[in-house]
Amino acid sequence: MCKMDNIFNKKFWIKEWDKDKKSDTYNVHRGFSTQEYWDKAAATYNRNKKEVRNRRLEKTMSFFKRSGLLFKGMKVLEIGCGTGMVAMELAKHGAQVTALDFSRGMLEKFEQDITPDIEKNITILNEDWYEIDIEAEAWKKKFDLVIAFMSPGVASPESFFKMMNCSKKGCTIRGWAAKRRHTILSVLWEKIMGIPLEDKPQSILYKINLLFSLGFFPEITFDTIEWDQTVRVKEEFDSQMAFFKKVSKKSDAELKEIIQSYLESISKDDYIIRKHKGLTATAVWNIDSRYT
Predict the structure, then answer these.
(1) What gap in Å lies between CA 220 and CA 208, rounded to an integer?
(2) Could you give all domains of the chain from N- to C-terminal order, each with its CATH number?
């Protein structure tokens, strides 16, 4: 088989995706895949107006509408809904949204922001996507749109196919499309893991190529995001501890000493400025538009 044929070979892309388990990228994603990490991180979300603008809600809704995936009464499933910004925006457009996340901390922030006018349009589930039985839930082909934005819930081919099986009209995913800047994480990674961090883009690139191999040709858009976030040392410490407990073999005592010492060295008046910068890709495709 020539290299060009691989582009349209499903098994090839699944195999390439599985190879990621041997890389730093996979270990980084493992660190971001725990309930504890997101429960701790939730405290720092939605504080900055530029952060909220970077969610690109208006552009995202236009994207859905252009694809025929935004209409009153539609049924939506969001996997890894986080603080619910996308779910709430869809509910304002008349969608009936089932929003799930395994982080109770994220969902608590979500619940605080739901307004009475959309409350009846949103069902929140504190569930892990990997553990959901879509047959038992009667979710196969139930939803008009299934969403997974920046979600660790669809980090494997199996969970990605499971997502697609829940849709009768369309799906959309969003993830990092280029190496992003983790200033604090990069320094701590070298101190704790003993090597420089080599974190490639998330698995969205495998997902998109896998879609091509299946005969789907998604519409893709890219966005550069950048904002500064001011957080307390304690908030950053809790998040970094939760992350490195998953990826490092060091004891909690060793991690605590390394992380606390570094964060205190870069803090001012008990606060740290965390910089966010990167390129995201959003892909939308219609389930019934398979190329034939």
Answers:
(1) 9
(2) 8-286 (3.40.50.150)
**E strands of the chain, at which residues?**
75-79, 96-101, 122-126, 143-149, 167-176, 219-232, 271-286
Alpha carbons within 13 A on the beta-carbon side of 55 = 20
The β-bridge relationship of strands 271-286 and 143-149 is unpaired
Query: Is-contact 188 259, C-beta < 8 A?
Result: yes
Q: Residue 19 corresponds to which tokens in the numbers above?
A: 């190879």
Residue 215's region, left for phi above 0, alpha for psi from -120 to 50, else beta, is left
Residue type, 289: S
Query: Which residues are within 8 A (CB) of 238 and not within 5 positions of it... i.e. 6 or more apart?
Result: 40, 43
- Distance separating the N- and C-terminal Cα atoms of the chain: 22
Would you state the structure tokens that stand for residue 216, as one six-digit string? Answer: 């789907």
What is the token pair recorded at 177? 């499309």
Q: Express each pLDDT in 43-100 by its tens digit.
A: 777 665 554 554 578 889 999 999 999 999 999 999 999 999 999 999 999 999 999 9
Residue type, 104: R
Cα–Cα distance for residue pair 169/284, rounded to 1 Å: 11
DSSP state of 268: B
Q: Are 52 and 85 in contact (CB under 8 A)?
A: yes
